[in-house]
Amino acid sequence: MTQRHRVSHATLGLDADPSPYAPTPPHSGRSSPHPAFAGARFADDLEGQNDEAIEGLSARVKMLKEITIGIGNEVRDSTIQLSQMNDAFAETSGILGGTFRRMNNMAERQGCRWLWYIVFLIMVFWFFIVVWWFRR
Question: Is residue 107 classed exposed, middle or buried when 0-12, 13-18 and 19+ CB atoms within 10 A define those classes?
Fold first, then answer.
């Protein structure tokens, strides 16, 4: 009667084990008291573990895809913003260049007198700062 329930381990794809029970599959925590169904249960357990691993990997791939899409959107938005800033700086550079050119023309027409005005204004401004500092 015990011979009827014994199954060859070689036919199930398991290593040759002299015990009448099938080995416990890795990570399942259970063993089969019926050796005839041990190979099928072991294959089902492995297939279940593979399915769980595939689900975990697909979730990670989905997460990485969302991250890369977010990075792409951020790069696109940053590129647009940098382009707008470049245009604004170019416009400002043109305005400042014209202002300095007009200021130099004015300085050449007035001679050296404008320099004395600037020195006088700086000294007056410095005097007010010193007085304000000591009166606090």
Answer: middle
In 3D, which of 117, 20, 42, 70 has the Cα closest to residue 62?
70
3 state DSSP class of 55: helix
- Distance from C-alpha of 117 to C-alpha of 101, rounded to nearest angstrom: 19
Taking only the tens place, the pLDDT of each residue in 23-49 is 555 555 555 555 555 667 888 888 889
- The answer to whether the beta carbons of residues 46 and 25 sit under 8 Å apart is yes
**Per-residue pLDDT tens digits for 66-104:** 999 999 999 999 999 999 999 999 999 889 889 889 888
Is the pTM for the entire model greater than 0.70? no
Phi, psi of 19 (to 5 degrees): -75, 155
Cα gap 72→50, rounded to integer Å:
32
Q: Say which residue the tokens 């019926």 belong to.
A: 34
